[in-house]
Amino acid sequence: MQQYAFDMRNISIRYPHFAMENLNLSLVKGQVLGLVGVNGAGKSTTIRILMGLVKPDAGQVDVLGYQLPAQQVQAKYDIGFASDDMRLYKNQTLQWHMDFIHSIFPSFDYGYAKDLLQRFELIAEQKIKGLSHGQRVKACLLLVLARRPKLLVLDEPTTGLDPVARDEVITELADILRDYERSVLFSSHNTHDIEKLSDQIAFLDQGKLLALQDKESFVQSWARFRCQLLPQAQDHVAGAVSIRRSGQLAEGITDQCSSDFAVVLQQAGFKVIEQHRMSLEEIFVANVKRNR
Amino acid sequence: MLDALDNTMMIKRLIVKDWQLVKKSLAAYMLGGVVIIGMMGMATPLMFNSGAILMITLMIVIGARSAIELVVNEKKDQTLAFMMSLPVTAQDYALAKLGSNLALYLLPWLLLVLGMLLVIISTPLPNGVIPLVLLVSLFILLSYCCYLATALLTYSEGYTVTVMIITNLLLNGFIFWIIRMPAVHLTLESPTASWNSTTLGLLATGSVLVVVVLVLTAYLQKRKTSFL
User: Fold this and answer.
1) Which residues pair with A271 in a beta bridge?
2) Could you say which of 3.90.1570, 3.30.70, 2.60.40, 3.40.190 is the CATH number of the domain covering A222-291?
3) What is the pTM assigned to this prediction?
4) Chain A interface includes B222 (CB < 8 A)
5) Contacts with B7 from chain A: Cβ below 8 Å
6) What is the mean pLDDT of residues A9-25?
7) Which CATH number does the domain A4-213 belong to among 3.40.50.1370, 3.40.50.970, 3.40.50.300, 3.90.1170.50?
8) What is the pLDDT of residues A247-263, one digit of tens each?
9) What ipTM goes with this model?
10) Which of A115, A178, B148, B224 has its CA 20 to 30 A from that of B51?
11) Most B CBs within 10 Å: which of A73, A152, A154, A185, as the mutation test of the B interface?
């Protein structure tokens, strides 16, 4: 039986301009799950429910064996959470924050924190207000990682970072996540970041889970075909997610890529000129368009 | 182990954290309070009245700063997300905020009120002014509880500042109202404090209202299902 870091079952919540209906999402222990969605897709709501900060209208949330929101206090001792809208106290130093976190979490590892200070090029005695946005994000991550939580929840931690800072954070995170066995939920609208870090990827849009697969399955099952239209070309092709026609040419996208699909296209009146693998971003966009 | 981690401990830590955040500014205000009490202690009508106005201002500033800095700014500066990532519920957090704000306001409020009473008792100032001082101080405390409740329930700077403005305007009206009362007015110059049914009734009503506002705040906060 698989052990889950978290398991969300039939989650529903309704706001005036947003609804989430019967969301089922789980993460196997030791895996990194990337949650991809545009702004307003429901990523932050999902994470807030997972942190016990929002009570869903219906459904069950189990995190590390604890029922949320009822047992959120116990669960939070083992959850590390960082988000793009999280800030530290600007008039205090990073050292003050480290001491504060240590006073709450005895598992806070000063040795590891010192190592992270060097890796993130941070100065413990510096006040938070003197840090750049990138340094503040790194400071938040340091405070979370040094606790060595069993489940790490990162809500768009790279949003607003310049490309260099983002690359630094992602590279360090990838390195850190390789070092230690822990479960991670990483949300972002940036598919490049998700691709670098995740074992499994979930697409979320308008409060619905569109797809949940491991990274390799996504890349292998999705493909784009450039075709020449034959006179007998049909309107629909079995297995095609979309067919876009432009003059005598057409572009077909499938989520069931195999050698058979090229044959199906040929039989439907589409002569395949070339076949391309799709990037995660292209797969995400195709998924969203299909479901809207 | 988790059973031992009673959340009273977390609430205490959050209160201590708030104390660490404001202790310097609070020390500066208390220094200002000592200077103002010194002014009032000169016991001339000009210095006492000027000191009284400054003292009212100081009490309002300490309260306003406490509610804004420790509650509203926590959301505005986005440190609330950091706090809520800790092992606390929204109710624990609100309770800690209520506790820290009350402690960090009540303590200076109490010291300032006691300082004023000490000055009045130990100088030639008429003790008949004591009921007025206590009633005005209690009204300021009640006002503070009202905008603290607004801050805790809405985390909105706009609503909190609106309640602050309303209570400050009401304070002026309240002072005029009680000074015109014969039970207060006629005994202001007397050498001893006069405790009659009017002053005692107002003090009791004010104290009950303070408790009602605080209990209601805790109750409404407990009913919230979403946080952040």
Assistant:
1) A228
2) 3.30.70
3) 0.84
4) no
5) 73
6) 92
7) 3.40.50.300
8) 889 999 998 888 788 88
9) 0.81
10) B148
11) A73
